[in-house]
Specification:
This protein is an alpha/beta fold and 300 residues long. The protein is built from 10 helices and 13 strands. Strand 4 and strand 5 form a beta hairpin. Helix 1 packs across helix 2. The protein is globular, with a radius of gyration of 19 Å. The two termini are 15 Å apart. The model has no long low-confidence stretch (mean pLDDT 94).
């Protein structure tokens, strides 16, 4: 019902539309949620976010939660619901489980970024993390960058060596050390880290870093040396308000990815590039629209 090929193309256009001002989308509203049971207070907070957008013929709102302690309960750490509405009347059209949509649209954004920003001739992909986003990114990036389909092209690391080996085997990657992963041509960070896990000293001078985790003004995956590269964001407003990697390093956003795709901006041909992905409501709307329109086509 929702495939990467159509989704990547639709996300590419959505990013252009966002940067061109054709999307109405405020910053997400986030509430920190402490456990009601005092005995569980040591597990730390979760968060509850609301993400609305209006674009084209549709409106959508995603409610999403992140509760890290769910992993110990056998539950997904991320849960989400997307409601799609008709713009002209405000009537709800569909309510969708947002977990798969979030997983796929996030990887689709990264695929668009890699197509636009990776240096020609890039042959190796390093993935830091081994959750659902690691799997989705391996699939999506191999679709847009054929070199990553070659044996040994994809490397993976996570703190749990046993999990790293298992997931690497499942996605056709090699489980290696963190510094070897960091030495790849393209490095994707998809972790739940709160402090930097990737260091600029380990990176190639002309690598592309796609940073997907650490959504929050106080959270980081990347150290200051990584952030010294040319910084491209989905949303300048989002990066400057919601990304600890950006805020705490003092990095400046060079341009939005949509501006680059539309030819409104350029990036230096040489040197490291960093793409900071935070996720946007327009991406959820775009994916939900594809699902809804595909269902209508099938039912005719």
């Amino acid at each position: 019902m929702l495939g990467f090929e159509r989704l990547i193309a639709a996300i590419r256009q959505a990013l252009v539309d966002y940067s061109a001002g054709r999307v109405e989308q405020p910053l997400r509203t986030v509430l920190r949620v402490m456990p009601e049971d005092a005995a569980r207070a040591g597990e730390g907070p979760g968060w509850f976010a609301v993400m609305p957008a209006v674009a084209g013929a549709y409106m959508a709102v995603k409610t999403v939660t992140f509760f890290p302690a769910n992993a110990g309960l056998g539950l997904p750490t991320h849960l989400a619901t997307i409601t799609l509405l008709r713009r002209e009347t405000g009537e709800p059209l569909a309510v969708m489980d947002g977990r798969l949509i979030t997983e796929m649209r996030t990887a689709a954004v990264s695929a668009v970024a890699v197509e636009a920003l990776a240096r020609p001739g890039a042959r190796t992909l390093g993935i830091v993390g081994a959750g659902v986003q690691a799997r989705a990114h391996a699939e999506a990036l191999r679709l847009v960058w054929p070199a990553f389909r070659e044996p040994g092209a994809v490397r993976l690391w996570t703190r749990d060596g046993e999990k790293a080996a298992r997931v690497a085997g499942e996605i056709g990657a090699e489980a290696v050390g963190l510094e070897e992963v960091a030495g790849s041509d393209v490095v994707v960070t998809v972790t739940s880290a709160r402090t930097p896990v990737l260091r600029g000293a380990w990176l190639k001078a002309d690598s592309l870093v796609v940073a997907v985790g650490a959504v929050g003004a106080e959270l980081r995956e990347l150290d200051d040396a990584v952030m010294a590269g040319t910084l491209i964001a989905e949303s300048r407003q989002g990066a400057e308000n919601e990304s600890g990697d950006v805020i705490l390093s003092g990095a400046r956003v060079h341009c939005e990815l949509g501006e680059l795709l539309a030819g409104m901006a350029t990036v230096p041909a040489k040197g490291r590039k960093v793409f900071k992905s935070l996720g946007m409501a327009i991406e959820d709307l775009t994916a939900a629209r594809l699902v809804w329109e595909t269902l209508r086509e099938v039912s005719r």
